[in-house]
Amino acid sequence: CQRQKFGADTLIRIPDNWSFAEAATALVYQTAWRAIFEPLQPTTDSLARHPKLPADAVIAVTGASGGVGLAAVQIGLSLGAQVVALSRSESSRERLRNVGAQHVFSPEQADLKKAVFASIGRKGVDAVVETVGGPMLGLGVHLLGYGGRVGVVGVLAGVEGSVPIPSLMFKRASVHGIQVGEIDPSESVMELSQIVEHLE
Questions:
Q1: What's the rounded Cα separation, in Å, for the pair 64 and 79?
Q2: Which one-letter DSSP state was computed for residue 148?
Q3: What DSSP string runs through 10-41?
Q4: Residues in a beta bridge with 82
Q5: Could you tell me the pTM of the whole model?
Q6: Which of 3, 92, 97, 147 could staple 87 via S-S, CB 3.0–4.6 A?
Q7: Distances (CA, A) of 20 to 16, 27, 196
Q8: Distance separating alpha carbons of residues 93 and 108, to the nearest angstrom
């Protein structure tokens, strides 16, 4: 086994009150962070330095009880956003309520879009963290408001999904694929520092 050397500028200190197990989840949180913020900025450099959300932001998370999903819920809450959490399991939905998600639904609920819009008090969310794939991609686009965006990070329900093109057009919405494996180390350190700050 060859030893790998890492420069000090590519490392971040584990927060004093974090366990090694908690620190090992960094990639999960960074994936969620990117899914929320990446489409907002034209370059990853400005993304790392100046992430912003509207003051009244609403974030929806599919597969919200999974690893990236739960991280997205926690980050959304730490940013002061309203969070719409979708999960098929009743026990998982209860857990999401206990974590603090304000609007929790089953993705199989009848008239889901109408119920979500009534719950958040407006027509559409600002961002969807899409962790499931397959048919959930189309649902994510339907939940968007004007200028909204979907960050796609998972394919557990399938590698293909249909997108309602009129919704993309008339909402001026967008769908973005998220990949954290190729981030420059210095930007990655910057993002992780911000994530730790918000979670603390």
A1: 17
A2: E
A3: G--PPPTT--HHHHTTHHHHHHHHHHHHGGGS
A4: 58
A5: 0.87
A6: 92
A7: 10, 13, 14
A8: 13
CB count in 10 Å sphere of residue 190: 18
Q: Which two structure tokens, joined as six digits, stand for 170?
A: 């008339």
**Quick one: how far is CA 21 from the chain centroid?**
21
Each of the 200 residues of the chain gets a pLDDT tens digit; together they read 566 677 777 777 888 888 999 888 888 999 999 999 875 554 445 444 445 677 899 999 999 999 999 999 999 999 999 999 999 999 999 999 999 999 999 999 999 999 999 999 999 999 999 999 998 999 999 999 999 999 999 888 888 888 899 999 999 999 999 888 777 777 888 888 888 888 88
Match 């969807």 to its residue by tokens: 128
Contact 167, 141 (CB under 8 A): yes
